[in-house]
Amino acid sequence: MTQDELKQAVARAAIEYVVDGEIIGVGTGSTANFFIDELAKIKDRIKGAVASSEATAERLRGHGIKVFDLNDVETMPVYIDGADEINAAGAMIKGGGAALTREKIVASVAQKFVCIADGSKLVDVLGKFPLPVEVIPMATSVAARKLSALGCEAKLRMKDGKPLVTDNGCNILDAVGLSITEPAEMEAAINNIVGVVTVGLFARQGANVCLLGTPDGVKKLEF
Questions:
Q1: Is residue 178 a contact partner of residue 201, using CB atoms and an 8 Å limit?
Q2: DSSP element (H, E) containing 55
């Protein structure tokens, strides 16, 4: 199976976690896009969705799914999103699609986080994938120095020859070369750097379920 076929398989499997008559939290990225396409097939069963990015909101609306502002939503039964890496404890690296802050905010409101990913995303130790850190623009250099002191190389993410700007008007530093054996502690340490909006470590509040696409079918991991 191709990577896209694995992503489609887990997207279909995730529909099982959609609660009829409720609002669903939806993530950002290629795997989340496959889920949105599956969600569109049952859109009449749900009240709508909260999007973790402008791109996701646009795709949801394109399918005729009502998009709610998170400020108008007190709680949701489930948030469904992909991951760049996930370990055996359900801790994740997210933010390859530059939506880490909004993803973490929306996930915090949901009662359950369902991670959907192809099998290559399951790792023993997080950190081979560069760890995204969203920063206030004026703090980019100082935050990069503080990150480097943790033993990594902090690279400013670029797009079309310019610093990438997130939906929040911020920059992203990608921390390269980390071996994250204590994800929750690393998450707290980076979040405490002045100027950091949030780090793409989802460890203190990780996944509750991971639907993992493999050549042998979709495997469910519970944490």
A1: no
A2: helix 54-62
- Catalytic entry in 38, 85, 103, 134: 103
For 107, counting Cβ atoms within 10 Å of its Cβ (0-12 exposed, 13-18 middle, 19+ buried), the class is buried
Give which of 27, 38, 31 is closest to 99, Cα–Cα.
Answer: 27
Residue in the block written with tokens 């949701």: 76
Roughly what angle, to the nearest 10 degrees, separates helices 3-14 and 30-39? 50
For residues 126 and 121, give the distance between their C-alpha atoms in angstroms, rounded to a whole number: 10
At position 125, the amino acid (one-letter code) is V
pLDDT < 70: residue spans in the chain: none
The overall longest dimension of the chain from CA atoms, in Å, is 51
pLDDT at 184: 98
Assess whether 103 carries a catalytic annotation.
yes
Question: What's the first-to-final CA gap in the chain, in angstroms?
Answer: 27
Residue that the structure tokens 């969203």 belong to: 134
Say if CB 212 and CB 119 are below 8 A apart: yes
Query: In this predicted structure, what is the pLDDT of residue 139?
Result: 98
How confident is the model over 26-39, as pLDDT tens digits? 999 999 999 999 99
pLDDT at 1: 84
Which run of H or E residues covers position 147?
A: helix 140-148
What digits encode the pLDDT tens for the residues 190-210?
999 999 999 999 999 999 999
- Cα R_g (the chain), whole angstroms: 17
